[in-house]
From TrEMBL:
Gene3D superfamilies the UniProt entry points to: Aspartate Aminotransferase, domain 1, Type I PLP-dependent aspartate aminotransferase-like (Major domain)
Protein name per UniProt: Cysteine desulfurase
This protein's record includes keyword Cytoplasm: no
A matching Pfam family: Aminotran_5
Domain of life, per lineage: Bacteria
Keyword terms of this UniProt record: Iron, Iron-sulfur, Metal-binding, Pyridoxal phosphate, Transferase
Origin species: Homoserinimonas aerilata
Family of this protein: Belongs to the class-V pyridoxal-phosphate-dependent aminotransferase family. NifS/IscS subfamily.
Domain Aminotransferase class V: 3-360
Cofactor(s) needed for function: pyridoxal 5'-phosphate
Length: 381
Protein backbone atom coordinates (compact mmCIF):
# COMPACT_ATOMS: atom_id res chain seq x y z
CA UNK A 1 0.00 0.00 0.00
CA UNK A 2 1.49 3.41 -0.94
CA UNK A 3 2.82 5.54 1.91
CA UNK A 4 2.19 9.28 1.73
CA UNK A 5 4.66 11.53 3.57
CA UNK A 6 4.17 14.80 1.67
CA UNK A 7 1.37 16.38 3.71
CA UNK A 8 3.00 19.82 3.56
CA UNK A 9 2.20 19.81 -0.16
CA UNK A 10 -1.42 18.80 0.44
CA UNK A 11 -3.19 16.56 2.92
CA UNK A 12 -6.24 14.33 2.34
CA UNK A 13 -9.71 15.67 2.95
CA UNK A 14 -10.94 15.06 6.47
CA UNK A 15 -14.11 12.93 6.48
CA UNK A 16 -16.02 15.76 8.18
CA UNK A 17 -14.86 18.26 5.58
CA UNK A 18 -15.74 15.93 2.71
CA UNK A 19 -19.26 15.29 4.08
CA UNK A 20 -19.91 18.99 4.68
CA UNK A 21 -18.56 19.96 1.26
CA UNK A 22 -20.61 17.38 -0.63
CA UNK A 23 -23.80 18.26 1.23
CA UNK A 24 -23.28 21.97 0.49
CA UNK A 25 -22.84 21.29 -3.23
CA UNK A 26 -26.51 20.29 -3.42
CA UNK A 27 -27.70 23.71 -2.22
CA UNK A 28 -28.46 26.25 -4.95
CA UNK A 29 -28.04 29.98 -4.54
CA UNK A 30 -25.56 32.81 -5.00
CA UNK A 31 -24.69 34.30 -1.58
CA UNK A 32 -25.09 37.79 -3.08
CA UNK A 33 -28.66 37.17 -4.24
CA UNK A 34 -31.47 38.58 -2.11
CA UNK A 35 -34.04 35.82 -2.69
CA UNK A 36 -34.50 33.05 -0.12
CA UNK A 37 -32.19 30.55 -1.80
CA UNK A 38 -29.45 33.15 -2.10
CA UNK A 39 -29.86 34.10 1.53
CA UNK A 40 -29.69 30.43 2.48
CA UNK A 41 -26.35 30.19 0.71
CA UNK A 42 -25.22 33.36 2.47
CA UNK A 43 -26.09 31.93 5.90
CA UNK A 44 -24.11 28.80 5.06
CA UNK A 45 -21.17 30.93 3.88
CA UNK A 46 -21.15 33.19 6.92
CA UNK A 47 -21.35 30.27 9.35
CA UNK A 48 -18.28 28.83 7.65
CA UNK A 49 -16.55 32.21 7.90
CA UNK A 50 -17.23 32.22 11.65
CA UNK A 51 -15.59 28.81 12.06
CA UNK A 52 -12.51 29.88 10.09
CA UNK A 53 -12.33 33.14 12.06
CA UNK A 54 -12.36 31.25 15.35
CA UNK A 55 -9.45 29.11 14.17
CA UNK A 56 -7.49 32.24 13.17
CA UNK A 57 -8.12 34.32 16.27
CA UNK A 58 -9.97 37.07 14.46
CA UNK A 59 -13.47 38.39 13.81
CA UNK A 60 -15.54 36.91 10.96
CA UNK A 61 -15.51 40.23 9.08
CA UNK A 62 -11.72 39.97 9.03
CA UNK A 63 -11.76 36.69 7.04
CA UNK A 64 -11.42 37.25 3.31
CA UNK A 65 -11.87 33.99 1.39
CA UNK A 66 -9.47 33.53 -1.54
CA UNK A 67 -8.69 30.79 -4.06
CA UNK A 68 -5.85 29.55 -1.83
CA UNK A 69 -2.72 30.55 0.03
CA UNK A 70 -0.95 31.93 -3.03
CA UNK A 71 -3.72 34.40 -3.80
CA UNK A 72 -3.92 35.38 -0.13
CA UNK A 73 -0.18 36.11 -0.07
CA UNK A 74 -0.37 38.11 -3.30
CA UNK A 75 -3.35 40.09 -2.07
CA UNK A 76 -1.50 41.02 1.12
CA UNK A 77 1.93 41.74 -0.35
CA UNK A 78 0.73 43.72 -3.38
CA UNK A 79 -2.26 45.22 -1.60
CA UNK A 80 -0.25 46.63 1.31
CA UNK A 81 2.45 47.92 -1.06
CA UNK A 82 -0.06 49.72 -3.29
CA UNK A 83 -1.88 51.16 -0.28
CA UNK A 84 1.34 52.58 1.17
CA UNK A 85 1.70 55.25 -1.52
CA UNK A 86 4.67 56.81 -3.27
CA UNK A 87 6.58 57.68 -0.11
CA UNK A 88 6.88 54.06 1.06
CA UNK A 89 8.37 51.83 -1.62
CA UNK A 90 10.48 49.39 0.40
CA UNK A 91 9.48 45.82 1.32
CA UNK A 92 11.37 43.86 3.97
CA UNK A 93 11.55 40.17 3.05
CA UNK A 94 13.70 37.46 4.67
CA UNK A 95 15.57 35.07 2.45
CA UNK A 96 14.01 31.61 2.42
CA UNK A 97 10.40 32.72 1.93
CA UNK A 98 7.87 30.73 -0.09
CA UNK A 99 7.83 31.55 -3.80
CA UNK A 100 4.34 33.03 -3.47
CA UNK A 101 6.05 35.87 -1.61
CA UNK A 102 9.37 35.85 -3.47
CA UNK A 103 7.76 36.02 -6.90
CA UNK A 104 5.23 38.65 -5.78
CA UNK A 105 7.85 41.06 -4.43
CA UNK A 106 10.11 40.50 -7.42
CA UNK A 107 7.16 41.34 -9.69
CA UNK A 108 6.56 44.53 -7.70
CA UNK A 109 10.25 45.35 -8.03
CA UNK A 110 10.20 44.91 -11.81
CA UNK A 111 6.86 46.54 -12.58
CA UNK A 112 5.92 48.85 -9.71
CA UNK A 113 9.22 50.35 -8.54
CA UNK A 114 9.39 48.48 -5.26
CA UNK A 115 12.68 48.35 -3.39
CA UNK A 116 13.16 44.87 -1.95
CA UNK A 117 15.33 44.57 1.13
CA UNK A 118 16.39 40.93 1.50
CA UNK A 119 16.97 40.04 5.15
CA UNK A 120 19.29 37.23 6.28
CA UNK A 121 18.27 33.96 7.92
CA UNK A 122 20.58 31.90 10.12
CA UNK A 123 21.82 28.34 9.66
CA UNK A 124 18.57 26.99 11.17
CA UNK A 125 16.36 29.00 8.81
CA UNK A 126 15.39 31.54 11.48
CA UNK A 127 15.02 35.22 10.64
CA UNK A 128 17.75 37.33 12.21
CA UNK A 129 15.78 39.70 14.43
CA UNK A 130 18.68 42.13 14.70
CA UNK A 131 18.71 42.53 10.91
CA UNK A 132 15.00 43.34 10.92
CA UNK A 133 15.50 45.87 13.70
CA UNK A 134 18.41 47.45 11.84
CA UNK A 135 16.44 47.75 8.60
CA UNK A 136 13.49 49.35 10.39
CA UNK A 137 15.85 51.84 12.06
CA UNK A 138 17.70 52.70 8.84
CA UNK A 139 14.79 53.11 6.44
CA UNK A 140 11.79 55.40 6.79
CA UNK A 141 10.14 54.27 3.56
CA UNK A 142 9.12 50.71 4.52
CA UNK A 143 5.71 49.73 3.16
CA UNK A 144 5.59 46.20 4.55
CA UNK A 145 7.36 43.49 6.51
CA UNK A 146 6.35 40.02 5.31
CA UNK A 147 7.58 36.65 6.56
CA UNK A 148 6.67 33.00 7.10
CA UNK A 149 5.30 31.94 10.49
CA UNK A 150 7.02 28.59 9.99
CA UNK A 151 9.36 27.83 7.11
CA UNK A 152 7.58 25.65 4.58
CA UNK A 153 10.69 23.60 3.75
CA UNK A 154 12.68 23.11 6.96
CA UNK A 155 9.88 23.76 9.46
CA UNK A 156 11.61 26.36 11.65
CA UNK A 157 9.20 28.51 13.69
CA UNK A 158 9.90 32.24 13.57
CA UNK A 159 9.89 34.71 16.53
CA UNK A 160 6.54 36.11 15.43
CA UNK A 161 5.60 38.41 18.30
CA UNK A 162 9.11 39.87 18.54
CA UNK A 163 9.07 40.75 14.85
CA UNK A 164 5.56 42.22 14.84
CA UNK A 165 6.39 44.36 17.89
CA UNK A 166 9.42 45.80 16.11
CA UNK A 167 7.35 46.65 13.05
CA UNK A 168 4.53 48.16 15.10
CA UNK A 169 6.99 50.48 16.84
CA UNK A 170 7.87 51.88 13.41
CA UNK A 171 4.31 51.99 12.08
CA UNK A 172 5.02 49.29 9.48
CA UNK A 173 2.28 46.78 8.52
CA UNK A 174 3.08 43.07 8.87
CA UNK A 175 1.87 40.20 6.74
CA UNK A 176 2.58 36.63 7.86
CA UNK A 177 2.39 33.63 5.57
CA UNK A 178 0.92 31.14 8.05
CA UNK A 179 0.15 28.38 5.54
CA UNK A 180 2.71 25.93 6.96
CA UNK A 181 1.94 26.79 10.57
CA UNK A 182 -1.85 26.58 10.33
CA UNK A 183 -3.16 23.40 11.89
CA UNK A 184 0.16 22.71 13.62
CA UNK A 185 0.56 25.78 15.84
CA UNK A 186 -1.88 28.14 17.56
CA UNK A 187 -2.29 30.76 14.82
CA UNK A 188 -4.00 33.98 15.89
CA UNK A 189 -4.21 37.28 14.06
CA UNK A 190 -5.03 39.11 17.26
CA UNK A 191 -2.34 37.60 19.48
CA UNK A 192 0.38 37.66 16.84
CA UNK A 193 0.20 41.42 16.39
CA UNK A 194 0.15 41.01 12.61
CA UNK A 195 -2.04 43.00 10.26
CA UNK A 196 -2.71 40.02 7.99
CA UNK A 197 -2.29 36.23 7.93
CA UNK A 198 -2.47 33.98 4.86
CA UNK A 199 -3.72 30.38 5.14
CA UNK A 200 -4.92 27.57 2.87
CA UNK A 201 -7.68 25.01 3.45
CA UNK A 202 -6.09 22.02 1.73
CA UNK A 203 -3.15 22.04 4.16
CA UNK A 204 -5.47 21.26 7.09
CA UNK A 205 -7.76 18.69 5.47
CA UNK A 206 -10.12 21.07 3.71
CA UNK A 207 -10.88 21.33 -0.01
CA UNK A 208 -8.45 22.47 -2.66
CA UNK A 209 -9.07 25.86 -4.25
CA UNK A 210 -9.92 27.89 -1.16
CA UNK A 211 -7.84 29.81 1.34
CA UNK A 212 -8.16 32.97 3.38
CA UNK A 213 -6.49 36.22 4.23
CA UNK A 214 -7.20 37.17 7.83
CA UNK A 215 -7.06 40.95 7.44
CA UNK A 216 -7.33 43.26 10.42
CA UNK A 217 -10.35 45.53 10.21
CA UNK A 218 -7.97 48.49 10.68
CA UNK A 219 -5.70 47.45 7.79
CA UNK A 220 -5.89 48.95 4.33
CA UNK A 221 -5.05 47.04 1.14
CA UNK A 222 -5.70 47.70 -2.52
CA UNK A 223 -7.54 44.70 -4.03
CA UNK A 224 -6.21 42.49 -6.79
CA UNK A 225 -9.69 41.75 -8.17
CA UNK A 226 -12.45 44.28 -8.81
CA UNK A 227 -16.07 43.82 -9.75
CA UNK A 228 -18.85 43.36 -7.21
CA UNK A 229 -17.37 44.66 -3.99
CA UNK A 230 -17.81 41.45 -2.00
CA UNK A 231 -15.83 40.82 1.19
CA UNK A 232 -15.26 44.43 2.29
CA UNK A 233 -14.47 45.27 -1.35
CA UNK A 234 -11.12 43.56 -0.75
CA UNK A 235 -11.85 40.54 -2.96
CA UNK A 236 -14.69 40.74 -5.46
CA UNK A 237 -16.37 37.78 -7.13
CA UNK A 238 -19.03 35.17 -6.42
CA UNK A 239 -17.97 33.35 -3.28
CA UNK A 240 -17.63 29.57 -3.26
CA UNK A 241 -19.98 28.74 -0.40
CA UNK A 242 -19.56 24.91 -0.58
CA UNK A 243 -15.76 25.17 -0.49
CA UNK A 244 -16.04 27.59 2.44
CA UNK A 245 -18.25 25.08 4.26
CA UNK A 246 -15.64 22.36 3.74
CA UNK A 247 -12.96 24.78 4.92
CA UNK A 248 -14.99 25.63 8.01
CA UNK A 249 -15.44 21.95 8.86
CA UNK A 250 -11.68 21.37 8.60
CA UNK A 251 -10.99 24.49 10.70
CA UNK A 252 -13.24 23.12 13.48
CA UNK A 253 -11.49 19.75 13.53
CA UNK A 254 -9.20 19.34 16.58
CA UNK A 255 -5.50 19.19 15.72
CA UNK A 256 -3.73 15.91 16.40
CA UNK A 257 -0.22 16.44 17.74
CA UNK A 258 2.31 14.76 15.47
CA UNK A 259 5.39 15.56 17.50
CA UNK A 260 5.91 12.03 18.82
CA UNK A 261 5.59 10.47 15.38
CA UNK A 262 7.83 13.17 13.88
CA UNK A 263 10.50 12.50 16.51
CA UNK A 264 10.26 8.77 15.80
CA UNK A 265 10.83 9.53 12.11
CA UNK A 266 13.82 11.78 12.83
CA UNK A 267 15.44 9.24 15.14
CA UNK A 268 14.81 6.48 12.62
CA UNK A 269 16.40 8.37 9.73
CA UNK A 270 19.45 9.17 11.86
CA UNK A 271 19.79 5.51 12.77
CA UNK A 272 19.23 4.20 9.23
CA UNK A 273 21.49 6.80 7.57
CA UNK A 274 23.87 8.19 10.23
CA UNK A 275 25.41 10.73 7.85
CA UNK A 276 22.03 12.37 7.16
CA UNK A 277 21.80 15.94 8.52
CA UNK A 278 18.60 17.30 10.04
CA UNK A 279 17.94 20.82 8.76
CA UNK A 280 15.94 23.52 10.52
CA UNK A 281 15.62 24.09 14.23
CA UNK A 282 15.80 20.75 16.07
CA UNK A 283 13.28 21.93 18.70
CA UNK A 284 11.35 24.97 17.51
CA UNK A 285 9.85 23.41 14.39
CA UNK A 286 6.34 22.50 13.30
CA UNK A 287 5.25 19.10 14.57
CA UNK A 288 4.89 17.41 11.18
CA UNK A 289 8.19 18.36 9.50
CA UNK A 290 11.44 16.37 9.24
CA UNK A 291 13.85 17.80 6.68
CA UNK A 292 17.20 16.14 5.93
CA UNK A 293 20.09 16.49 3.54
CA UNK A 294 21.90 13.33 2.42
CA UNK A 295 25.56 13.90 1.50
CA UNK A 296 26.59 12.59 -1.91
CA UNK A 297 23.00 12.20 -3.10
CA UNK A 298 20.73 14.12 -5.41
CA UNK A 299 17.36 14.74 -3.79
CA UNK A 300 15.53 14.06 -7.05
CA UNK A 301 17.17 10.64 -7.30
CA UNK A 302 16.15 9.82 -3.74
CA UNK A 303 12.60 10.97 -4.40
CA UNK A 304 12.20 8.75 -7.47
CA UNK A 305 13.79 5.73 -5.78
CA UNK A 306 11.53 6.08 -2.75
CA UNK A 307 8.53 6.59 -5.02
CA UNK A 308 9.38 3.33 -6.79
CA UNK A 309 9.41 1.70 -3.36
CA UNK A 310 5.92 3.06 -2.67
CA UNK A 311 6.85 6.03 -0.47
CA UNK A 312 5.90 9.59 -1.51
CA UNK A 313 8.12 12.38 -0.19
CA UNK A 314 9.34 15.78 -1.42
CA UNK A 315 12.57 17.60 -2.14
CA UNK A 316 11.05 20.88 -0.96
CA UNK A 317 8.17 23.15 -1.86
CA UNK A 318 5.66 21.49 -4.19
CA UNK A 319 5.11 24.90 -5.79
CA UNK A 320 8.59 24.61 -7.33
CA UNK A 321 8.26 20.99 -8.38
CA UNK A 322 10.03 20.12 -11.62
CA UNK A 323 12.55 22.97 -11.39
CA UNK A 324 16.04 21.39 -11.15
CA UNK A 325 17.79 23.85 -8.87
CA UNK A 326 18.98 23.88 -5.28
CA UNK A 327 16.53 25.19 -2.70
CA UNK A 328 16.89 28.93 -2.15
CA UNK A 329 15.91 28.27 1.49
CA UNK A 330 18.90 26.00 2.06
CA UNK A 331 21.23 28.32 0.15
CA UNK A 332 20.01 31.17 2.33
CA UNK A 333 20.87 29.06 5.39
CA UNK A 334 24.46 28.87 4.14
CA UNK A 335 24.53 25.40 2.57
CA UNK A 336 26.60 24.75 -0.51
CA UNK A 337 24.84 24.03 -3.78
CA UNK A 338 25.93 20.37 -3.60
CA UNK A 339 24.62 19.90 -0.05
CA UNK A 340 21.37 21.70 -0.82
CA UNK A 341 20.69 19.39 -3.76
CA UNK A 342 20.66 16.38 -1.46
CA UNK A 343 17.51 17.45 0.41
CA UNK A 344 14.36 15.51 1.25
CA UNK A 345 11.37 16.75 3.21
CA UNK A 346 9.20 14.24 5.07
CA UNK A 347 5.90 15.69 6.34
CA UNK A 348 3.20 13.95 8.33
CA UNK A 349 -0.56 14.47 8.43
CA UNK A 350 -3.75 13.57 10.23
CA UNK A 351 -3.80 10.02 8.80
CA UNK A 352 -0.07 9.23 9.24
CA UNK A 353 0.84 6.11 11.22
CA UNK A 354 3.84 4.38 12.73
CA UNK A 355 3.58 1.87 9.89
CA UNK A 356 4.10 4.72 7.40
CA UNK A 357 7.28 5.77 9.19
CA UNK A 358 8.50 2.18 9.37
CA UNK A 359 7.93 1.73 5.62
CA UNK A 360 10.04 4.82 4.92
CA UNK A 361 12.83 3.65 7.21
CA UNK A 362 12.85 0.22 5.56
CA UNK A 363 13.20 1.70 2.07
CA UNK A 364 15.53 4.59 2.84
CA UNK A 365 18.97 2.92 3.23
CA UNK A 366 18.76 1.17 -0.15
CA UNK A 367 17.52 4.35 -1.81
CA UNK A 368 20.37 6.37 -0.32
CA UNK A 369 22.99 3.85 -1.42
CA UNK A 370 21.62 3.72 -4.98
CA UNK A 371 21.28 7.51 -5.16
CA UNK A 372 24.83 7.96 -3.90
CA UNK A 373 26.17 5.63 -6.59
CA UNK A 374 24.15 7.44 -9.24
CA UNK A 375 25.33 10.82 -7.99
CA UNK A 376 28.99 9.88 -8.09
CA UNK A 377 28.60 8.30 -11.52
CA UNK A 378 27.01 11.52 -12.81
CA UNK A 379 29.94 13.54 -11.49
CA UNK A 380 32.45 11.18 -13.08
CA UNK A 381 30.96 11.50 -16.60
Amino acid sequence: MPVYLDHAATTPLLPEARAAYIAALDLVGNPSSIHSQGQGAKRMLEEAREHVATSLGCDPIEVVFTSGGTEAVNLAVKGFFWAAGEQRRRILVPRGEHHATVDAVEWLERHEGAIVEWLPIDSLGRIEVSAVADALDRFDDVALLTFLWANNEVGTIQPVEELTALAAAHGVPVHIDAVSAYGHLPVSLRQSGADALSVSAHKIGGPLGIGALALSRTASVVPLIHGGGQQRQVRSGTQDAPAAVGFGAAARHPHRSLQGLRDRLIAGVRSAVPEAVLRGDPVDRVDNNAHFTFPGCEGDSLLFLLDAAGVSVSTGSACQAGIPEASHVLLGMGLSDADARGALRFTLGHDSTEADVDALLAALPTAVERARRAGYNDRAV
